[in-house]
Amino acid sequence: MKIELKKEYCVGCGLCEIYCLVAHSSSREVIKAFKGEKEKAESRLFLEIDKPVSFPLQCQHCDDAPCVRGCITGAMYKNQEEITLLEEDKCVSCYTCILECPYGAIQISKKESLLPIKCDLCIGSGGEPYCVNNCPNGALILKGGS
Amino acid sequence: MNDYLIIGNSAAATGAIEGIRTVDKKGDITVLSEEAHLCYSRPLISYFLAGKVDGGKIIYRGRDFYSKNKVNLHLGSRAIEVDPDKKVVTSEGGRDYPYQKLLIATGSSPLAPLLKGSGKKGQHFFYNLNDVYHLKENIKEGDSAVVVGGGLIGLKAAEALSLKGLKVIVVEKAPYLLSSILNQVSATILEERIRKSGIRVIVNNTVEEITGTKKVEGVILGSGERISCTTLVLAAGVKPNTSFLENSGIPVNRGIPVNEKMETQREGVYAAGDVVEGWDPLSENKRVVPIWPAAYCQGLVAGKNMAGHPMESSGEFPRNSISFFGLNIITAGLLEVNSGEEEIINYNEDKNTYYRVLIKDNRLVGMIKMGDIKEAGVLTWMIKKKMPAGNLKEKLKSGSLNPVHLPESIRSILYGEEGVK
C-alpha cells in the first residue's frame, strides 16, 4: 500500500500538509489542531516546491525498504499489511533511515524527541489517509489498499 | 543434518534468517553464536553505556524472533573449524554440526595495538556487549579515561564515557578525527563540538606505553607527554574474524571474497557482514565494508540464495549516520579528491552546517552532510545508482537536493519499479 502521486495535478496548495498535521493531532479537527492543542502536531509529509514542479515528499512504503533494512535498532519495521512504521520507543534517533531513504521522506521531528517522522498512511487515524481525502486536485491516490 | 547453518548472530545472521524464511518456511536453521546474547544492536553499545538504552531495548528483534522463525540457537558456541568437503562445522568442545548450506557471519574483532606495558587491569576494548559490562563495573564518575583512536568506535566510546562523568582524552594518530569518513574541514567542526563538550582531543600522536604496575595508571604518548588515567579504551581498528578458516580451504584476503550472491569460492558456503570482502561499486573493487546496513542486506541476499531463490547484491559502499553531542553527521561513498574529481562545498559557519559532495565523471561519488542532514538519502541513492549529476550542480551548491529538484529522467527512475531495487 502506498500513496501515488500525480504530480501533474499538484499545484502546491499545501492542504496535504495541513491535513496530515490534523490526522496526527489529538482532536483531528483542523481549528483545534492548529490553535487549541497543548502540543501542536506535525505533518508527516513534506511539501516541496521548485516552480513549476511541486509535490509532497512522502514515504513510498517500499517493498525492499532501505530504511527498514538499514535500521540499526530494529525500530523501523513492516507491519502485516507491509506498511513501513516506526516503533518510537525503540528508536534512538541515529538517523540511519535518513541516510537510506532515497525519497527524502523521513525528516527529524521539531519536537523535543527529535524522532524521525514519516508518513504512516494514517494508520492510527482510521480510514483513508487524510492527504488523499483532502487533496482538492486528486493528485494523491491510495494504491494497493483493500 | 541442518539444512542451514549460520556461524554468527548479528546483523548478517538476522538478515539471512529473514531471507531464508521468505523462501523456505520449514528447513532447519541452526545458529552458532559465540556471544551468550540474543542478537543485539552493536552500534547501540555506546547508548547502553551512557544509559540511554537498557538491556531490553538493545535487542535487535523481539525476544521471540528465534522461536517465531524456528531457529535452533546455540549461544556461547564458538566455531573453530570448517570442513567444506565433509560439510561439517566443529565448535569449541568438539561438537560437530553437519550442514547443507553454510553462512559465515562471524563479524570482526578489535585490533590490539602493540603497546609497551599492555595487559593491565583497566584496559578495555569497546566492541561488544561484554566489553560494556566490564567497563560499567570498572568506571566511576570523576575517573580519567584515555581512548586510543578517534574513529567511529573510539569517539562513540569517548562520548559515552564523558556522559558518564569521566574526564576523557582521545588520542588519534591521524591529523584529524574520523579521518576515514570526513575531510579536514568537517573534522575540525566536529573536533570543536567534542572539545566544547569537555573531551580533550590529541591528534597526530600515539599512545606508546601504558604505565602502572597491575592496574592502568597512565599512558606515555609519542610526544613524550604523560597522562594519568585509570581506564584505557583501545579503538584502533578492526579485523575480520577468519582465523578459524585457516585449514578450511576457503580463501581469505582482507576478508572472505564472495560473489554477488554472497557465495564464497566453495560451493554451498556463503559469507556476509564484516567478515566479507564484497563488491564496492564506487571504488570498483572488492573490499570490506563493515557497516550495519550492509551486513543486514548481505545476509538477506545470502539467505535467499541459500534457500534457492536467486538474488544478487548490487554491492555495498561505505556510509554512516552518526551524531556526537547532538551534531548529526551523514557520509557516504568516496572521500578523497583526486584528479578529475570536483568538489562542491557549502559551509555555513553561523548555522554550523557543512555540506560537501564529490563528483567524478559527471556522477556523484561521495557526500558529507553535517549539522543539517535533511534529505541525505537522496544523495545516497544518486551515488548508489550512479545517476548523472552534471545539470544539478547549481542545486547541489545550495546544499539541498530532493526529488522535486531532479530532472524527470532521473525522477521517473526513482519513483519507478527499479527505484529502490
Give an account of the 3D structure.
- The complex is a heterodimer of chains A (146) and B (421).
- In chain A, the strands form 4 sheets. In chain A, strands 1-8 form a two-stranded antiparallel sheet.
- The longest helix of chain A has 9 residues, at 15-23.
- Chain A has helices at 15-23, 30-36, 66-70, 96-100, 130-134; strands spanning 2-5, 46-50, 53-57, 76-78, 84-86, 107-108, 116-117, 140-143.
- Chain A is of the alpha+beta class.
- Chain A contains 5 helices and 8 strands.
- In chain A, β6 and β7 (116-117) form a beta hairpin.
- Chain B is α/β, with parallel strands linked by helices.
- Chain B contains 10 helices and 25 strands.
- Chain B has helices at residues 11-23, 45-50, 65-68, 129-138, 152-163, 184-196, 292-306, 376-384, 393-397, 408-414; strands at 2-7, 29-33, 71-75, 79-83, 88-91, 96-104, 108-110, 123-125, 144-148, 167-171, 200-202, 207-211, 218-221, 226-228, 231-234, 238-240, 256-257, 269-271, 276-280, 285-287, 319-324, 327-333, 341-348, 353-360, 363-370.
- In chain B, strands 1, 2, 3, 4, 5, 6 and 18 form a 7-stranded mixed β-sheet that branches. In chain B, strands 8-15-9-10-11 form a 5-stranded parallel β-sheet. In chain B, strands 21-22-25-24-23 form a 5-stranded antiparallel β-sheet.
- In chain B, α1 (11-23) runs parallel beside α7 (292-306).
- Chain B is globular, with a radius of gyration of 23 Å.
- Chain B starts with a strand and ends in a 7-residue tail after the last helix.
- In chain B, 48% of the residues are buried.
- Chains A and B meet through β2, β3, α3, α4 and β6 of A and α7, β21, β22 and α8 of B.
Overview features:
heterodimer; A: 146 residues; alpha+beta; two-stranded antiparallel ribbon; two-stranded antiparallel sheet; 8 strands; B: 421 residues; alpha/beta; 7-stranded mixed β-sheet
